[in-house]
Every structure is written in C-alpha cells, then in structure tokens.
C-alpha cells in the first residue's frame, strides 16, 4: 500500500485518530510520519488523499472550539481537568460528558441499589419499562417471534403488579 500523503513510498506506519467521534485511519511512509511528528494532519488533506484528489476542494475553515457562554470554560479545559465551570456547562458539554461516562462506567444510566421495602415493586416496574422498550426494538427489527415472547412476559409482569396492588 502506498503512503496516503506522498503517494510515492510504501506505507509502513498505521495512524488512527478519533475526530468528531469518527475513526480516521492513515497509512504513511516513515518519512511522512517523521515530518508530521506531531501528527496534526489537516482533515481536508486527509480526505482528499483518501479519495485520490490532488487538491482539497474545501477551504480551510477556522478552528472553533466548544465554549460555555456563561463561564467561558472550553471543552479542552473540561477534557484536561474533568471539572465543569458552572451549571450551564452540563448542557453545553452534554455529548462529551456522556461519552466520558460511557467510557468510564460502561453506561450513562444509573443502576443503583433499591431500598428493600420497595425493591420488588420498583424492580418490577423497571423490568416492565425495559421489556416494553425491547419489544419496540424487536418490532422495528421485524423479529416477531421474539416480540411475541416479550409480549407474554409483559402480560405476566403486568398481572403480577396488579395482584400486588389489589
């Protein structure tokens, strides 16, 4: 495979970078990799090289950073420190926060302990909601046999909840 930058030498360096939550891969020769030691590759040049275009057709846009309009905190500061500047930052950096939580905890939804006195009912209601969501996904994917099984579980759980209430 040829180097995606110079298109003359054999590519021996594989470079992967995440840009805007998209995986971008580059195959470079040793010389191009050395020349770009910081590996700050212009995205327009990257895509034009991947598509085989000589010149990028898109003009270089000025780099803009995500910033909280209330306290002035930037996404770079948040990523570096892990701390937010104000309550508005939660809205501004929502996507970054969710990505970080998913990476750390494996999920963005809290699944904590339930008090024993109410655990049975709360757990049943939670399971009922989860089953209804799963039923909807099965219907969208046209998995009707699995959907029928889930429907039966939902009916049994609803009957169980009604018996506990009545």
Automatic annotation (TrEMBL):
A GO MF label: helicase activity
A biological process term (GO) from this entry: stress response to copper ion
Superkingdom in the source lineage: Bacteria
Ranges where the UVR domain occurs: 125-160
Pfam families: UVR
InterPro entries: UVR_dom, UVR_dom_sf, YacH
Keywords per UniProt: ATP-binding, Helicase, Hydrolase, Nucleotide-binding
Protein known as: DNA helicase UvrBC
Organism, as annotated: Thermoclostridium stercorarium subsp. thermolacticum DSM 2910
Source lineage: Bacteria, Bacillati, Bacillota, Clostridia, Eubacteriales
